Amino acid sequence: xxxxxASAALAGVLFMTATIGAVFTGGCGGGKSATGEPLxxxxxxxxxAADTFNxxxxxxxTLDTVVNxxxxxxxxxxxxxxxxxxxxxxxxxxxxxxxxxxxxNSADSPLRWYxxxxxxxxxSVKLDGFVELTDPDRLLPFPLAGAENLREGRRLSGAxxxxxxxxxxxxGTFWIAEEFGPSLVHVDGNGVVLEKPALVLLPPSLRAFGRxxxxxxTPDHPxxxxxxxxxxxxxxxxxPRSGGIxxxxxxxxxxRLYAAVEKGMLDDTDGQRRLILEFDPARHGFTxxxxxxxxxxxxxxxxxxxxxxxxxxxxxxxxxxxxxAAAIKRIYRVVPGQVDDTGYLARTLVCDLLSLDDDRDLTRxxxxxxxxxxxxxxxxxxxxxxxxxxxSTLVVANDNNxxxxxxxxxxxxxxxxxxxxxxKTPLNAAGAAAVATAPVESAASKPQ
Length: 448
What we know:
The protein is an all-beta fold. The chain has helices spanning 148-151, 230-236, and strands at residues 40-48, 53-59, 65-67, 70-72, 74-78, 82-88, 91-96, 112-119, 124-132, 163-168, 174-178, 183-187, 198-199, 245-250, 257-261, 273-280, 285-294, 301-307, 313-318, 329-339, 345-352, 356-357, 375-376, 383-390, 393-398, 416-423.
């Protein structure tokens, strides 16, 4: 195993631009401007090969199948499934999610974040160590369910948590959003759990959809894990499986975090309603304030969230399609507290990940591939990592779900692609308002 690298203050992770200029005026028709041009261009692309491994397996021992030409169980630990990116100088910290997709098949998948160094000129990615999540002080409110070799060292597995987003704090610690609960988990720079997870209280206006619980709960919530019948767990859950917190962003000052719930509540009468909740890291709890975000369609999920450094949030949406079936992979900007006449957050399209301009000829069309060349696309089922670099630059990466996803080249497992995007109109600064102080029980929070 690679020796974990402890993080210092990670000042580089907490970068944000001091000034962000120009008013954003992007249009919304299919991700193109009023002139019909894409809203963003490809500025760099670094690829980590799908068949990248770090450490011995087996991984996926419960599976006996062949997917996209790869045989399961896997002989090594795959470096895949990135769900969040942070910047640390020239490096990126890439959080890996639960493993092979479910609690049931990921007990032998160790939970890690990796240190990556993209070489934008060469188009490659160097792997430079990792940190594993552990719970030596037994703070998680459930018995660890990982494989024996992981449990012995209190190492966490994909049967324990499903990490989906991460933010860095000034003291060198991290908050990680995980969607099994859902909850937020506080860890130090060595991945050690520091306290009990912060669960998510339902906003009072949504408790009619809570199925008897005051908390948001997926079928994998700690309260439900002891039930033998999965049908009973699903009946008592108010969120679908893999429907918990997927995005996490830090306010510029670090006094607030914003957590985006990936999918709608099971009984919500508005299938397009999604939640963005406010969290107070100093008090280690949710504040009770939230805002409603209307997804483009009922089958569209929020897959990532980041702050623009000026009171706004960028929201990455995605539908369940990949390859030629991919339809909605878009980034919008919202400002907490700025709502439209329906009470939902007003949003502005930033760019469409299926309509990008490779005007620098960084890629070439390949026979049988999808989305390479001048009309560049990210046709993946889960573009899942969103990082704001400055007013005009975003970094996006896909969760390649190795070996299951095959969006770029049908029949072949997806690589991890990290792309740097150049916005043709910079993000808005002048119109970004301060974070709203209205309580959750405002008119904007009443069930539709």
